[in-house]
Every structure is written in C-alpha cells, then in structure tokens.
Amino acid sequence: MKAIKLLLAAALTVVTLQPSMAASATSSRIKDIASLQSGRENQLIGYGLVVGLQGSGDSLRSSPFTDQSMRAMLQNLGISTQGGQSAAKNVAAVMVTANLPSFASPGSRIDVSVSSLGDATSLRGGTLVMTSLTGADGQIYAVAQGSVIVSGFNAQGAAASVTEGVTTAGRVPGGAIIERELPSKFKDSVNLVFQLRNPDFSTSVRIADAVNAFARRTFGDAIAEARDSQEVVVQKPRTADLTRLMADLENLIVMTDSPAKVVINERTGTIVIGADVRVSKVAVSYGTLTVQVTESPQVVQPEAFSYGETAIQPQTDIQAQKTGGKIAVIEGPDLKTLVAGLNNIGVKPDGIISILQAIKSAGALQAELVLQ
C-alpha cells in the first residue's frame, strides 16, 4: 500500500478545487442560450440546372433527367429542341436548398447551397439558372440564381489525379431573393415562448426568475413561467410593446447550468470533459502488448557439382513487448485530475478512452458518457 501511495504521488497531481472554481454556472444573455419559438427558420428546397461547366457536367446518357430538364427549359424560352440527343457535358442537375430566416421580408436575399444530382465531376465555374424554392406547404417563397462558389478542386492527367475538398457541392452567396413572406407576424403573437438550446431545468427556472424580476420593476407583476426544461412562456403585458419587450428581455443576464458529461470520439481520439464531472476512488492499471512479426526469407544454394536445386527457406522472427502495468489509486474531485495523471504516466488518448470506459463500467465515473 505504501508503494502505491508513492506511485500516486509521483504520477498524479491531485488538485482540490475551491467551491467557486467547481461551479460550472456561467453568465450568459438570454438571446445566447434560448431562441424565440415564433422566430424559427424554415427550410426551402428546389431543383435546378447549373450551366457553363468546362466539360465536368452530367453525361446526358447516364443522367436522363438532366437532358429532360434542359429540353424543358429551352422550350420555355421558345427554343425548339427537336432532334437527336445532345452530348454536351457543360450542364449539371442540382438540388438547391436554403433556410428562410424568421421575419424575412420580400426582396431580401439569402444564401443557397447547391449539390449535384447526377454524375458531374465538378460544379466549379458554373452558373445556377433561375430556380424556384418551395417550402413544406408547396408554396414558392424564393427564387435562386447566380454563380456557384466551389471551395474544392480537382486536377487530373493521363496517369494521376489530385482532388481536394468537395467539388460537386457549392454555395451561391445571396443568390436567392425572397418573393413571399411567412403568414405569421411577430406583432400578432399573444405571448413569447423561449426555447432553450441546451434544455436544463435549472437554467429554465433561472430565466423565468430573471424575467419576473425585470417585470416586477417595470410592470409591477410577474409575466414568465417555466413550463419544462426547454420552454419558458412570457405573457405580454397590456401596456407593453412586443418588440421593445423582446429587446429588453433578450439582454437579461442568466446563470446557466449543464449536466456532467464526458464526450468521447473514438475515431479522432477527442475527449471533451464537463466541469461538474466527478470520479470516485478507483485503482487503475493499464498495459499494452506489442507483437512484432518480421519475415526474413533466405535463399539456400546447393553444394558445387551436386544435383540440388536453389530454394527459399522461410525465417520468421517474433518479438513480444509489454509496456505499462503500473497501478495507481485515483481519487480526485474532477476528471481533469485523472486525465492529467494519465498523461503523466504516458497513456495515449486511445488508452485514456479505454480507461474512462472501464471507470464508467465500474460505477466510479459520476457523469454521462457519450460515445460518438
């Protein structure tokens, strides 16, 4: 036991946090931690064509819908398309998506995303022709058109090719003009409903308390109620202007809270630790076994003036090496102490992830473990 304590003193540095340091609550404005229910965005979608590509568009035989769309567009422009099938590869069929902001008015512009539907290899240098964007109700809310900006590129020769990023998707900044406004109006709302971006009962109650404290000073009565961990409802006073009320409430300062979580991404070796994570007293031992197999075949020659044949004699060398194996007793107020100690004894990120999973299985990790 004395040896274990000495090992712990050498490998782990236990830090005791003061109450003010252990608290995870931070000060934030309401506008930064909650959104207005009536101020939600709406998704738009449309189908269109990108023209002007340098031979990197859809092959019309493999993508018949591109040829049909191109013929329909030309007929709408008064151009006859009777004849054989075109072999041009400067057109690509794309899906166009956008988010319609809340309280958007006709005439304002929004960005759109463009993604290839067929076998086009690149949208670089193309132009999106007029495309209608519809909502979930089937109504047209915006029309998009403009030059497509693609961040990726590709280059190829006879025997090699280089590709960086995604060349079959791009954006048209400010490429859509809003043609129809949303049916609902902010001024028509009877109350305000705040939706927390990170649902938590403590934060929800604190938002209601902050709004009621402001309302008692201004209107003489409480107007907010926390319904659950995500919604806080604010009743509109009779004498208040809804826009000014929202401007005052969204700047109120609230102490936010969050549950203890440990997020692990095993593919990248990323570990994100919450401030309120606690670790009970456990003993940790970690060791790795490395097996190295080396093949060194040798050529065997027959003796002179003999009837033997030249042959290859296999030769295999196997080396096994075991590292680690130290035992340390972990007892810290938070997970930061544990990770610092594991780093001191040379445990790599993949080993730390395995140890954290084992500590959670042992019931000593007082937090939610999220694996991605």
TrEMBL record:
User: What's an example of a GO molecular-function annotation for this chain?
Assistant: structural molecule activity
Protein keywords = Bacterial flagellum, Cell projection, Cilium, Flagellum, Periplasm, Signal
Kindly state the subunit structure of this protein: The basal body constitutes a major portion of the flagellar organelle and consists of four rings (L,P,S, and M) mounted on a central rod.
From the broadest rank down, the organism's phylogenetic lineage runs: Bacteria, Pseudomonadati, Pseudomonadota, Alphaproteobacteria, Hyphomicrobiales
- Localization in the cell: Bacterial flagellum basal body
Q: Which organism is it from?
A: Neorhizobium lilium
Q: Where does the secretion signal sit in this chain?
A: 1-22
Per the record, GO CC terms?
A: bacterial-type flagellum basal body, distal rod, P ring; outer membrane-bounded periplasmic space
Q: Which PANTHER family match?
A: FLAGELLAR P-RING PERIPLASMIC PROTEIN FLGI (PTHR30381), FLAGELLAR P-RING PROTEIN (PTHR30381:SF0)
Cited function:
Assembles around the rod to form the L-ring and probably protects the motor/basal body from shearing forces during rotation.
The protein here is known as: Flagellar P-ring protein
Family label: Belongs to the FlgI family.
